């Protein structure tokens, strides 16, 4: 009873202490996770899964997107967690270049297996604030004898995109080299229209949130339709991400959306599984 009384009397302080120790453990968890992430990048144990992009009209495969994966003590850490950690700790460019190298290896492996498709890599805005990323990326492509037109860059619009005057020329020079550049999660970020008008992008990826509400919400359908029009106006590739149901795919097809990606077609998978998946898929739908 005495203890309980103390607890009640000191509730505020206790809550504060609890908060403080929680915070402390968060900080040390972050520090531990960060040092593990640094190790994983150093040991190149970050790996990729790839997810196909599909032409919604012909059903053919148009390419893949590579997604970074990290396993720590047999558990997967969600990309949203470790990408943010990498972005806020200055590790992101190393991580993204490691992913680029794994993608170069994947393209080689797939080409040998007779299934050659472009693969997209995700780049974070900090990558594009200096020349290093671009130079090293082209070194990797050189080393693996990969044509830049087999690589696509997906950039998420973040606050860092406000440094537009720095990023846009980088993107433009990559486009000149033959790479494609899409604005990821399009419709949710910053400065999207400036990018389009300055021709620092060749494509738009309609954010998953609009696709998921597509068949239920008229407003979301209007947003999707607007992005599709925007794409046609500016002659951009448009792809819908996060397609999960046949109804969503059907609606997008009716709206003349050229391509799509999502669990409906395939989940992200290992490169070996993707090779098998492509062979099976191409038996059913002709290669485009
Ligand atoms: P993103 O680039 O927009 O990638 C799409 C995310 O949606 C991926 O999540 C993918 O697994 C997931 N997804 C695909 N189809 C569906 C679907 O039908 N339904 C649902 N609910 N989700 C679907 P993931 O792999 O967890 O990656 C999350 C984010 O982390 C990515 O979003 C990207 O912004 C970032 N990311 C992943 N890999 C890298 C990387 O190598 N470098 C950088 N800078 N960012 C990365
Ligand atoms: Mg992406
Ligand atoms: Mg996206
Ligand atoms: Mg995203």
UniProtKB/TrEMBL annotation:
Residues 30-282 form the EAL domain. This is EAL domain-containing protein. It comes from Neptunomonas phycophila.
């Amino acid at each position: 009873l005495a203890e309980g009384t103390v607890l009640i009397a000191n509730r505020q302080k206790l809550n504060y202490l609890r908060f403080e120790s929680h915070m402390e453990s968060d900080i040390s968890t972050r520090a531990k996770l960060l040092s593990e992430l640094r190790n994983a990048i150093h040991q190149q144990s970050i790996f990729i899964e790839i997810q196909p992009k599909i032409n919604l009209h012909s059903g053919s495969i148009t390419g893949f997107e590579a997604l970074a994966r990290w396993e720590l003590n047999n558990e997967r850490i969600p990309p949203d967690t470790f990408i943010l950690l990498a972005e806020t700790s200055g590790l992101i460019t190393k991580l993204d270049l490691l992913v680029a190298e794994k993608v170069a290896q994947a393209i080689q492996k797939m080409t040998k297996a007779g299934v050659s498709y472009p693969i997209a890599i995700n780049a974070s805005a900090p990558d594009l604030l200096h020349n290093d990323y671009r130079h090293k990326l082209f070194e990797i492509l050189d080393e693996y004898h990969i044509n830049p037109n087999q690589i696509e860059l997906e950039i998420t619009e973040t606050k860092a995109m406000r440094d537009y005057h720095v990023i846009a020329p980088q993107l433009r020079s990559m486009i000149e080299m033959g790479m494609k550049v899409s604005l990821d999660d399009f419709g949710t970020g910053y400065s999207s229209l400036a990018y389009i008008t300055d021709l620092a992008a060749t494509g738009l990826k309609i954010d998953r949130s609009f696709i998921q509400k597509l068949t239920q919400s008229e407003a979301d359908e209007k947003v999707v339709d607007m992005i599709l029009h925007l794409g046609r106006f500016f002659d951009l590739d448009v792809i819908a991400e996060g397609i999960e149901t046949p109804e969503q795919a059907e609606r997008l097809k009716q709206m003349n959306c050229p391509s799509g990606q999502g669990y409906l077609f395939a989940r992200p998978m290992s490169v070996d599984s993707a090779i098998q998946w492509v062979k099976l898929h191409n038996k059913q739908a002709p290669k485009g």
